[in-house]
Amino acid sequence: MQRLSTTVLVVGGGATGIGTLRDLSMRGISAILVEQGSLAHGTSSRFHGLLHSGARYAVNDVVSARECIEENTILKKIGHQCIEQTEGFFVALPEDDESYIGSWADACTAAGIQTDEVDVNEACSIEPELSKKAVRVFRVPDSCVDGFRLVVHNAMSAKRHGGRILQYHRLVSIHQEQGNITGATVENTRDGSRLEIDCSAIISAAGSWAGEVCSKAGLDVPVSPDRGTLLVFNHRFTSRVVNRLHPGSDGDIFVPHGSITILGTTSVPTSRPDDTAPTEEEVLRLLDIGEPLFPNLRTYRILRAFAGTRPLYTPKGTATGRGASRNFQVFDHAKDGLSGFFSIFGGKLTTYRLMAERVTDACAAYLGISAPCTTHLEPLVPDPDPDVLAKAARYFPVSDLSLLADRAGDDLIPILNLAEACASEGEGANPLLCDCEMVSLAEVEHVARADDTYSLTDIRLRTRLGMGTCQGTFCTVRAINAMYEHDLLPAKDPLLSIRDFLDERFRGIRTTFWGTQAQEMELSHAIYAGVLNLDTAL
Predict the structure, then answer these.
(1) Most CB contacts within 10 A, which of 4, 71, 241, 400?
(2) Which residues form the domain of 241?
(3) pLDDT tens per residue, range 259-284
(4) Does residue 57 lie within any of the structural domains?
């Protein structure tokens, strides 16, 4: 059995886990991260994409509100490529409690969150789809964040500082001697092989799987998964994040992303961390709840529904669901008799960096390392050189350059080299494979050649291939044809790759299968089942 050695093993490849790997690596601490799937396949890619200002939490949790606004400011500096600074509106309708508005504004001020009241007519002028029944509107520094891109860019930074990442590796067991961590066994989920990792400490940043990780050490933590369902519309009918100005509830946040808008979310306690299947009833309920803010909501095509689970801290006797705390928790399990084992869960993606800092502080203290945290100072990825962008304009659509540069991060130059090589070999320009998201052949080829890429879904998560309004109808066959011609993903039959990719896309579509979405899926079925004789879930 193969054996590796490191100082710290991090379990969980979401934002908090990758942020922790980055922090450890920047402090000079040797670390390996293991993730049972692809990076961010859990909650970090299954949320509404809101970079909180903290205004949503100001009334009931001033500590979380302050953390959000502070981290909001930091992330806009170190990770601006992942963020669209849209600002946000909090909108009150006639049926909302007027007394709550005053307490909310005062709480925001106390938390250090700037709120400016906007004339209702002005608000409706700059957001014409907003309900004309709005009675009060406030501007806050909310923004939008691409959760998966944030994770990938943190991973790039961590690797630059020596961090190692093992995707598709599941934690099997935790090893201990005389109450001290000594290592772990992990299993490659693709071929079943096992790997021993010797280490002095383990940090569990497994989110909704935190309970399962702790159980492998014979411990228990009070974390409960809570499922949230969201809707994706094919139209950007708001340019700002729009929150309903009332106590936090279901379906009261609209978040624009690129050319689409996301509505979320629900809150349903569940016993399974992987309970991510939305229901038609939840979809219809979200439409009912969201319609008062945007009266034309039902006229837009719904691209898909998706769900993720929140890891809520729920000690015995405390609230669950919406009533549960959104604070994060750092556990030093030395108090449970196991030194060198730490857990972190709860919180929000907005505070992932702070969460990573706190758990790394605890782990570093245990290891006797005094190096300070510097993750708030160094950008995740550097801004591209203007000369590199000028060169890229020869091979990529000019309108795509900023999207490509922001998405690619450290990979921009290797992608550019592929595009240049393609042109020099007489293969013509660098064609777009995904028109919706402006993804080119060179970008797909670069990602496909990575050691940890095994499927079209892996490529989708890195490039957004198939995530646009056609939901893979046209780009899937182009991408698989290009990969076949360039001898990429050779271990899998091309038709099986297409089927698996389309089946994954359809899982988020089946609960919205009516109207124009049903027509779109009939077209997709005709292309793949009719022309290619491919049996899919469609």
Answers:
(1) 241
(2) 83-144+226-309
(3) 899 998 899 899 899 888 899 999 99
(4) no
